[in-house]
Amino acid sequence: MTTIGYGDVVPQTWLGRIVASCFSIFAISFFALPAGILGSGFALKVQQKQRQKHFNRQIPAAATLIQCLWRCHAADKNIAATWRVHVDPLARET
């Protein structure tokens, strides 16, 4: 249900009432459509930010796992640290 004006001027004929009703329905849909589009756009933006936040939380954990697995793979038979590759050239220089 909608109102047009203060009620002091109203359509008197059936044709006038039908035209006013059609115009009211058109006006309501004209303003409701952009509001729905904006609301769904904001909801999608919030959902995208939450998804990105969750994804950013997973990156450091995945990087740490890859580093640990690589160090286990690259370790020699004596299970020495893989940093020896970087330390040995410094020891040879002295």
Describe the structure.
The structure is a single chain. The chain is mainly alpha-helical and 94 residues long. It has one domain (14-93). The protein has 2 helices and no strands. The longest helix has 61 residues, at 14-74. The mean pLDDT is 77.
What's the structural blueprint in terms of helices and strands?
Elements: H1 14-74, H2 84-93
Q: SSE order, as H and E? A: HH
| Total E-strand runs | 0
Count of helices?
Answer: 2
Radius of gyration: 35 Å
Shape summary = rod-shaped
Give the percentage of residues in beta strands. Answer: under 5%
Major sheet description: none
How would you classify the helix and strand content by structural class? mainly alpha
Give the overall pLDDT as a whole number: 77
In whole angstroms, how far apart are the ends?
Answer: 91 Å
Query: Domains counted in the coordinates: how many?
Result: 1
Low-confidence stretches: none
Which range best describes the helical content: under 10%, 10-25%, 25-40%, 40-55%, 55-70% or over 70%? over 70%
Could you list some keywords that capture this structure?
76% helix
Quick synopsis:
The chain contains two helices and no strands.
